[in-house]
Amino acid sequence: MSVSEAKKVLDIEVEGLRAVRDRLGPEFEQAVDLIMASPTKLVVTGIGKSGLVGQKIAATLNSTGTPALFLHPVEAMHGDLGLVAPTDVVLALSYSGETCELNQMLHSVQQRQAPIIALCGRPESSLGQLAQVVLNSAVPREACPLGLAPTTSTTAMLAIGDALAVVLLQRKHFRAEDFRRNHPGGSLGARLKVAIRDVMLSGDSVPQVRQEATLQEALAELNAKSLGAVFVTGRQGELVGIVTDGDLRRALSGGQAFDSLTLDQVMTVRPQTVYSDLLAADALSLMQRHEITVLAVLNREGHFLGMVHLHSLLGKGEFRFLV
């Protein structure tokens, strides 16, 4: 019952997003042009749930190359309005468009001649009348069965904010290197900017056996290194396969005696690999996609160099460098 109700909520929100998408028109282009033309910043403002959505939109804009700040309307009317310059653009969020504290602040913004973009569900509202551009976020219905709690409407506002950020990112030719510069201290930034060769294990640290080794020898190496896998290499040091804890469990669950199994029978050939000059974020993404914790690391010529383990990337939620 709970799952079907949850699906109904998501269906309603998808319906709302589809309505917003289908309605999107020239006013979106006008909003982007206004923001692009500003030599200073975008000021995002709103109250309540709209204010919380506005804070997220401002954060996304900042990380993707559009300087933005969130300004609370009440604080603005008690001194913080000084943050708004005539060269700024103001993005105001209110689904009803009749939030009195917000509209009162915007009358003062008008006196500073800063252009206003309204993100609201009623273009004919007081907020819509104050704005140079109105982005219509109207949705057919809220997911809340009472029709009271902002649900679909806030999702729609958030999605329009994401659309603005992404389109502005593309207009500004914002690159991954620029994104990393905006995240110098976070674990996300660390994951993005470090090459796999800087965090991989190599040499004696890597659990590995030759292809002619016995399964018992592979198991001993796996236990000795305690990394959950052992790599199998050929005579020239090339990667042949991998044996993981899971491979062993699956082999033994088939009822076959351990002594009767060979390395070739248990190992996985053509395991997932990653190039050493890619970013650690690429390794992490590959691990997540395939639900694995280890990757073989190759150079561009295909030679086996070592391995990267999830623990090499993530400590207790922090990025860890290996020296």
Automatic annotation (TrEMBL):
Q: Which GO terms describe its biological process?
A: carbohydrate derivative metabolic process; carbohydrate metabolic process
Site (Catalytically relevant): which residue positions?
49, 101, 142, 183
| Residue ranges occupied by any SIS domain in the UniProt entry | 31-174
Q: Name one GO molecular function term.
A: arabinose-5-phosphate isomerase activity
Question: Which keywords does this chain's UniProt record carry?
Answer: CBS domain, Isomerase, Metal-binding, Repeat, Zinc
Membrane-crossing ranges are none
Residues bound to Zn(2+): 72
Pfam family example for this protein? SIS
Gene3D superfamilies per the record?
CBS-domain, Glucose-6-phosphate isomerase like protein, domain 1
**Where does the CBS domain lie?**
200-260, 267-323
Q: Which NCBIfam families match?
A: kpsF (TIGR00393)
Q: Which family does it belong to?
A: Belongs to the SIS family. GutQ/KpsF subfamily.
Q: What is this protein called?
A: Arabinose-5-phosphate isomerase
Q: What is the lineage of its organism?
A: Bacteria, Pseudomonadati, Thermodesulfobacteriota, Desulfobulbia, Desulfobulbales
